[in-house]
Amino acid sequence: MTTQSHQPDLLYSEEEEALRAAVRDLLTDRCDAAGVIARTESGTPHDPELWKALSAGMGLAGLLVPEDRGGQGATHREAAVVLEELGRAVAPAPYLSSAVVATEAVLACEDDELTARLASGRTVGVLAVSLGTAPGAAFSTVRLEDGQLHGELTGIADAVAADVLLVPAQDGGLYAVDAESVTVTPRVSLDLTRPVATVGLDGVTGRRLGDAEPAVRRALRAGAGLLASEQLGLAEWSLTETVRYLKERKQFNRPVGGFQALKHRLAQLWLEVVNLRAAARNAADALATGSADADVAVAVAQAYAAPVAVHAAEEALQLHAGIGMTWEHPVHLYLKRAKADSLAYGTAGAHREALAELVDLRAP
After folding, report:
1. Most buried residue, 144, 227, 290, 351, by most Cβ within 10 Å?
2. Has residue 364 got a pLDDT over 70?
């Protein structure tokens, strides 16, 4: 990947808009709110048919993989568009975990066989690093004794859906481990559409892919940068649905949205969402082009995205009033995802600290 400075392009291309339309159509057909809520209650939060449609049907699992390695040869810009739509639908699919984070880690290790499997979507990969780990932060490892892996890793997102786990070991290596050989214990998750679990390894064998440190760093940076696009999708849905509801809901024989106090709240939220779109697009573009400013762009996006997504979902819940508090209305899915995302791949505070270091504005 080349490293260069360039002028970021924050606009969507015609191809990206066409991709958005196709993904939105699919999610409208296969990922309705009632179905997602029912799935969160079923004990099987992931939707394998939806994942198959996204990966095998549309080829989206391989967007970040070069064509000569079995993928689509697209960039982080296209993956960001997909994540916007997945966020808008709170889709219960391991796209960010497998098609972005795990795929980036394997690409860093240049393992063509596993890369092709992830790109096809037939294999779901998960990086066995806690979801709350920021790019560049220390991460937990397991012991390697006599060629076998021993230990426990906590807070692993989408581990219950994984076919292969990418496990960092104390020898500095990253190992591909068959998910059937480990113990995956689901934990109570705030966001039921992206469950976390504890992974236990008791003398399992794995295939060494490469060095863990650069692979994990690259994977978490891409995960944090593109998570902002998912948060953008969440925030846009929250704003759009709230405006629509307030135009229909009447009080004192007039639409609730006509009251000036609510107009001000929605106008402020619109400004925040527009700014979030700029930050998320900048991060995706910087990752796609290998910009020298990619670390800064990712830190800016994540420092801004989490509070905006949470604020948007909170406003949606409050302004939907009593109906927003019901289990049947999907707004709770968005608030839970927004709150969980605010801790994923580093908090906004952690990214502000990283940004201060990157631009040499450290606190005294």
Report:
1. 227
2. no
